[in-house]
Write a structure and sequence with these properties.
The protein contains 26 helices and eight strands.
């Protein structure tokens, strides 16, 4: 057949029009299926079946359009119609009306969706989810650590999925034990979906119920009940994460599928100990951190290849060093072997890279070595709020405040109800000399947790740098109160009085702290001397702080409290001593 005549014949028989009409109608049907089916809790496979049948029907529609023609006399075979006779083709006119009508419907639907997205600022273009803490439905109601642990591990599994925004633990858990409308929570967090559930943990048996909810309409997209043994529990968590991804139509990468398939441990007792330890570690108090560390050690004793167990031990020592329960050297020397073991066992463990980077920054002063670890952690887990948070502080310490603010805002987006992240943002803004904004952030942190000592400390300093001395002194007093009168906190109050020109009260507090047994910060002593105009005292105490490797020294480059001596040539000399160890401390123990 002549190709030119063939295409003319396709046009005469309305095959082109049928193809266009079929495509437009099919698109409309697919839109209806994907929007309406979830409302009636119709499974996702039904939508896929609609698409499959429409694809199969396309060639059938073209064949029928070629073979038959709708005429005034009814449906006739196209071969029986004389092409030379003029006839009115009802089929062609009808198709024209169908195409125009459906196109108008498509335009209306797209306009509606566009306007709705413009008017709904909380709806993110990216697929997003928050996992509420699962309820403890155990008969004795004493398995909160277990239900919290299951929730946290599901958060961790989903957080590794690229293309999915996952709200971090602190924010999600702030709704724990609160009778709230799940759709309102979702809108408040700006997510499209919520996952909730319950855990019933009895002797040798575990029941996990999980259900995925569409925030827009409150309907369940997916739900399932798992009855398993403790040994099968880890596979249950992976299965929940996989089915959530399927329900949200997220295509998993090979690396993500591989990571999901990894079993954290084969020992259910080790896993139970780990969950108990993580529950205590999250309380952030010195005694609970120590108890959590002991449980992590029991867990790795049962399974030496339990990578996250080793990471938990490392995190415990790091936190103890940060809150002053251990010296920096003690914390680093004990954390190093654990974090090294964790990364040897699992080189895709984002938490391990965050821990190692934190040791390198806070205890080793090796910022250049720490940066690749922070970047690696974020690459492995873009939803890791801790990675963005600690990387932000790292960047601020070396004077890269704009980049630091970008990272802390990424952390804040993932964990908007974390008082710690808001406080860190306040600290970073203070180092950038943006004191009014720093004050605002600290106040917001205190709105979330009124007795958060770190926020009170940062708020006091921001007030003082902003020359709001009464407010700064009052915040410093509250910091002392909520820090149980520690030497560190009292010296910050002494600094407040020194800045406010109350030397007598400042000296009284300094004498009280230094004359009593107990640790105090030589770095804080340097800042007090600076406020009182004693430059020699500043450098004497800074020298001691560096010798003792005080954890505060890492902020020396950017700390506004040292501005009175920043132009002194001796400051450059002191800064030159702020260098990495010649050998990592783990080889020195």
């Amino acid at each position: 057949m002549d190709p030119k005549k063939f295409f003319v014949e396709l046009q005469r028989r309305n095959v082109y029009k049928v193809a266009v009409a079929y495509g437009v109608v099919s698109w409309l049907l697919v839109q209806i299926a994907t929007q309406v089916f979830p409302v009636f809790e119709i499974p996702n496979w039904a939508s896929r079946t609609v698409v499959f049948l429409l694809l199969l029907g396309f060639p059938v529609a073209l064949i029928l359009a070629w073979a038959y023609e709708l005429t005034p006399e009814g449906l006739q075979r196209a071969d029986e119609i004389d092409p030379t006779k003029p006839i009115v083709r009802r089929g062609g006119l009808a198709l024209n009306f169908v195409i125009i009508g459906v196109l108008l419907a498509v335009i209306a639907i797209m306009t509606f969706q566009h306007n709705r997205s413009d008017k709904s600022p909380n709806v993110t273009a990216k697929k997003s989810i928050a996992i509420l803490p699962f309820l403890d439905l155990s008969p004795t109601k004493d398995q909160e650590y277990f239900s919290d642990g299951i929730s946290e591990q599901i958060i961790n599994s989903l957080a590794h999925f690229h293309g999915l925004f996952v709200v971090a633990r602190t924010t999600a858990f702030s709704f724990k034990n609160k009778n709230v409308d799940i759709r309102e929570v979702g809108r408040q967090l700006g997510v499209s979906h919520m996952l909730e559930g319950s855990v019933s943990h009895g002797p040798g048996k575990v029941r996990v119920v999980a259900q995925l909810i569409d925030v827009a309409n409150g309907y369940h997209l997916w739900s399932e009940t798992y009855d398993s043994t403790e040994k099968d529990l880890l596979s249950v968590q992976s299965d929940v994460a996989t089915k959530v991804a399927n329900a949200l139509q997220i295509k998993l990468h090979l690396s993500e599928t591989t990571q999901l398939a990894k079993q954290l441990t084969q020992d259910p007792e080790a896993y139970d100990l780990y969950l108990r330890g993580r529950y205590l570690l999250n309380k952030r108090a010195a005694d609970s951190i120590q108890k959590g560390r002991a449980l992590f050690e029991e867990a790795v004793a049962k399974d030496p290849r339990f990578a996250v167990g080793h990471a938990g031990i490392a995190d415990s020592y790091i936190l103890l060093g940060k809150i002053g329960e251990l010296t920096g050297d003690e914390a680093a020397s004990r954390a190093w072997p654990e974090v090294s073991t964790a990364l040897e066992l699992d080189d895709n463990l984002a938490e391990g890279y965050v821990s190692r980077a934190t040791i390198l920054t806070d205890f080793e002063w090796n910022w250049s070595a720490a940066e690749p670890d922070y970047r690696k952690a974020i690459e492995l887990n873009p939803n890791n709020a801790n990675a963005h948070h600690w990387y932000a502080r790292h960047l601020a310490q070396i004077g890269r405040s704009d980049e630091a603010l970008g990272e802390i805002e990424a952390a804040e987006k993932l964990d908007p109800l974390s008082p710690f992240i808001r406080t860190s943002k306040g600290k970073i803004l203070s180092t950038a000399r943006r004191y009014n904004e720093a004050i605002d952030q600290c106040r917001r942190a205190l709105d979330l947790e009124s007795d958060f000592a770190g926020a009170l400390s940062t708020l006091a300093q921001a007030y003082l740098h902003n020359r709001q001395y009464p407010e700064g002194i009052e915040a410093a007093k509250k910091y002392v109160e909520h820090s149980k009168g520690s030497g560190w906190a009292k010296l910050e109050l002494a600094y407040a009085y020194a800045v406010a020109s109350n030397k007598a009260e400042s000296d009284r507090i300094v004498n009280e702290v230094t004359s009593q047994p107990g640790p105090f910060s030589p770095y804080d002593m340097a800042t007090i001397c600076g406020a009182l105009g004693d430059a020699d005292g500043v450098f004497r105490w800074l020298g001691k702080a560096i010798e003792q490797r005080s954890v505060d020294v890492i902020w020396m480059r950017v700390d506004p409290r040292l501005d009175p001596v920043r132009s002194d040539p001796r400051f450059t000399e002191v800064m030159a001593r702020l260098v990495p160890r010649t050998a990592p401390i783990q080889t020195q123990r």
